[in-house]
Amino acid sequence: MKVDGVFAGGGMKALAFVGALEVLTEKNIHFERAAGTSAGALTAAFIKAGYHAEDIYELFSDLDTKHFLDPRPLGTIFPLLKWLSLYNRMGLYKGHTFEKWLEDVLAAKRIKTFNDLPDGCLKMVASDMTYGRFIVLPDDLPRYGHSVEQFSVAKAIRMSCSLPFFFEPVRLKNDKGEDSIIVDGGVLSNFPLWIFMRKEKKRERPILGLRLSPEYEEIPPRTIKNSLSLLFSMFDTMRSAHDQRYVAKGDAKNIVFIPVEGAGVTNFEMDKMEKKQLVNLGRETTAAFLKSWSY
Q1: Of the listed 4, 128, 184, 243, which one is catalytic?
Q2: What is the pTM of this model?
Q3: Residues 175-214: tens digit of each pLDDT
Q4: Pairing between strand 179-184 and 122-128?
């Protein structure tokens, strides 16, 4: 059975998707198209590049993810410069090491640009802070004067994964020489279930979403006691309200809600036991979901 899959962002918590993929493969459910935001974009890209669940787990289980934390050289010598760099460059880490790793992993499957993938099979969401809009990659690249066929898939993933203030944003230059500041797609749409609904009057395949959170009715209300907690609540509401609109229209029945708790988005020091627990949680939740899924 073929479906269109949508993967939510969630940083290192996305290892739970590996367990979900294992179960889906066992049930002969495969992704014709895949989309996602941030770590969900990375998952979607690996799937369409030809990686299986066990391959993805191996990529991360033996990887020292702390290697991705590549600060500017002077920032490691003079700690104060690290924070000055955050102010000027808008990120603690360059993100170059992460992008180079992505290039190598994709190259192993002969994937470099979007021209190496079937047309329309992969879509990723990033946020354009300069113009205040989310962008769908690769669809919106011509708007910036870039060729879809020649654009790096690794660069697109890096754009979708540019967690604000953690990784430096990507500067996407248009054909007029102007820069757009691109950050993590989760700022504006962390779970782009809508991406395969646009302009499609009739669905060719079921849409299956995978989200790293409890179901909406199980999420406790936020506690707002001061201005700081109000600020965080406002940010969280803005990033989820657009996505929740589509879920509220009846598509929740097509979403695997994986109730990941305790694992940090940027926990790059996660040990093998913690990684395995996330994989098992993804397996158990997806297996339970499929028992009653009616598509």
Answers
A1: 184
A2: 0.84
A3: 777 888 898 888 888 899 889 876 556 778 999 999 988 7
A4: antiparallel
